[in-house]
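Possible regression after last week's pipeline update?

I re-ran a chain I had predicted before the update to compare outputs. Posting the input and the new output here so someone can diff against the archived version. Not blocking, just want to make sure nothing changed silently.
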Amino acid sequence: MRRPVRIARAVGAAAAAPAHTALLGGVAGVAQGAGAARAPGRRRHGGSRRSDAGFQALSSLAWRCITRARRPAPEQETTCRAAINNRARLRPALPAEYFGNSIYAVSTEAPVRASTLLERGRHGWAAAAVGRAVAAHDDEAIRARVAAWMAKPVVYTMRWYDPHGTMVGSSPRFDMYGCDFGWGRPVAVRSGKANKVDGRMSLYPGRDGGGSVDAEVSLTPEHMAALEQDEEFWAAVSMGAPAPEGKL
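New output (post-update):
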């Protein structure tokens, strides 16, 4: 079951209000702790502190809320993984003309117990964990992973899926709504049905602009129903407006 939601504003600075008091339609409160989440991040990939902290806030929000929606046992371990671009992180960077994907998935460090992740006030910690995973993915780390794969090649399949984790894909940096094939501006962005598993979230630039982010969340029906009742989640997002009739 997929459900698009809208993150109205991705604020990269730490907010004064605690995460659970974020105003509907914005993530000012969600980014609480994001200042502390500036893990030793060398922004050699061309990102900004604002966008980095915003990504950490959104990813960690999804991690916490999706984990809560699953109602796991307190001792169940979980991680947050995110697809990450290698192009500008390599030294030298891949040229702009490079055709094809160059991505890996990074993960938060050693799995954390669900009860620990969901403790009140732990959103800042979760955001910092995501930030550390992103910051550690540099040229040296990428080349080490390539060398490891060359030494022992493996074909990645769905058996690598972690039913207790959260996976974040795509990026709000991709100009999805800038694609015009002569039919006008896109009405909506959707990612199709491939690789849709429980706990998958795809991020896109918000159609409303202004730094907004659209998120496509994939969950089983029972987990989606639980997420729809999550107060922390709805304090930060708003349901995307339906597409005009006959347009989608």
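Follow-up from reviewer: compared with the archived run. The chain is about 25% helix and 15% strand. Marking as no regression found.
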